[in-house]
Amino acid sequence: GTVGFGMSGLLAMKLACHRKRLRAAVVFYGKPASPLSTLKDLYCPLLYHRAGADVSVSQEEIEQVRQAATEYGKRLTIQTYDGAPHAFCNETRPDFYRQEAARNAWESTVEFLNDCFKDTK
User: Quick count: other Cβ atoms within 10 Å of Cβ 60?
Assistant: First the structure.
């Protein structure tokens, strides 16, 4: 599995579209992979945590990702944290950190990863 925050979120999404053996990918407020046709090669479930107040990723971009995933029959979950800015999980940046959103995002990440790996031993 792979987990990425910000720019590494974009890289996690790209990896999930290139690595056949990957079982799960989690993106925290990363720019969506471009072009969107890249998602046709998404090999694993993807959880995307969207910062609702992030000006670097528009609602339109998120909808385009959602539509592309639907079109290609890919498993994509998008969770939006209303009012949360980019980097809302970064506790070293007090102007951006949102404790409740970060906790909720992390809990759903753990649940998602557990689900994706539950049959591996």
Answer: 8
